[in-house]
Amino acid sequence: MPYHHDERLPDDDIPVSADVTVRSQVRDGDTWRGVAGVCAATAAAVSPVVAAGGVPVVLSGDCLVAGGTVAGVQGAGVDPAVVWFDAHGDVHTLQTSTSGYLGGLALRLLNGAHPDRYADVFGLRPVLPERSVLVDARDLDPAEAEHLAGSATRRIPVAEVAADTVPSGPLVLHIDVDVIDSGEVPGLRYPVPNGPSTDAVLAACARLFATDRVVALDVACPWSRTDDEGQLDVRARLLSRLTALAAR
């Protein structure tokens, strides 16, 4: 899904050879409708893969696509919990966001915020907060910290990710690559230092894949456009290692 919000990204922005490149047909200038269109197209691509017993890997330019991935899993008759790896909380609402950046609402939208603009539009059944685990989230705005303090969504560090620290049943893993220390992933739109290493994040994901409960892997690549060969190589190797998790 080569999109950041409803913006179509260049074909090489996500440096991986995909089996399917999905495109949204919604292009009417309304960002919310555009995002919902991208999620609907994602769900339509994911659902048959899950129904056939596969584990789809969805790669996109932001975290909003995760709702489409979850909706696709639900459409195949599976009711998943979500393990959300991210340097940020992504639990703002339109009322609390100071930047207006929609990606900062992504997990809260998945949990049911603003359903008339998001979940209801493309058929997502919101995932209850108690069925969501937020991994890392070392960069929280005050409103996000306040919300999470009273939320059923649990926060755990990467090192504590294990079969018994995440919800029971099927799992959708959402990995925003900015969860990794910004020194290891150059060119991120919203870099955050002092994070876990690439190896630590991949090991945590591998522990969950070893449970055989992962039904979809959703990877957000919120980085800026670059022609730097070194940065492109880092990105390609990271995505290769992430996608290999679902192939084991």
Attribute tags:
metal-binding, 31% helix, manganese, 6-stranded parallel β-sheet, 8 strands, two-stranded antiparallel sheet, single chain, Ureohydrolase_dom_sf, 248 residues, 7 helices, alpha/beta, Arginase, Chain A
Count of spatially separate domains: 1
Strand order of the largest sheet: 3-8-7-4-5-6
**What are the low-pLDDT stretches, counting only 5+ consecutive residues below 50?**
none
The number of E-state strands comes to 8
Tally of DSSP helical segments: 7
Would you identify the CATH H-level superfamily?
A: Ureohydrolase domain
- Principal-axis shape equals globular
Percent of residues in helices comes to: 25-40%
What percent of residues are in strands? Answer: 15-25%
The CATH topology, please?
A: Arginase, Chain A
Task: Please report the first level of CATH classification, the CATH class.
Answer: Alpha Beta
Which secondary-structure class do the elements indicate?
alpha/beta
Order of helices and strands: EEHEHEHHEHEEHEH
CA radius of gyration is 16 Å
**Residue-averaged pLDDT, rounded?**
96
What is the makeup of the main sheet?
A: 6 strands, parallel
CATH architecture: 3-Layer(aba) Sandwich
Distance between the termini: 23 Å
Report on the structure:
Keywords: Hydrolase, Manganese, Metal-binding. It holds the Pfam family Arginase. Belongs to the arginase family. It comes from Micromonospora lutea. With 248 residues, the protein is an alpha/beta fold. The protein has a single domain (3-245), classed as Arginase, Chain A. 31% of the residues lie in helices and 16% in strands. It has 7 helices and 8 strands. Strands 3-8-7-4-5-6 form a 6-stranded parallel beta sheet, sandwiched between helices. Strands 1-2 form a two-stranded antiparallel ribbon. Helix 5 (142-149) links the parallel strand 5 (132-139) and strand 6 (154-156). Helix 1 (31-51) crosses helix 2 and helix 6 packs parallel to helix 7. It is globular and about 40 Å long. The two termini are 23 Å apart. The model has no long low-confidence stretch (mean pLDDT 96).
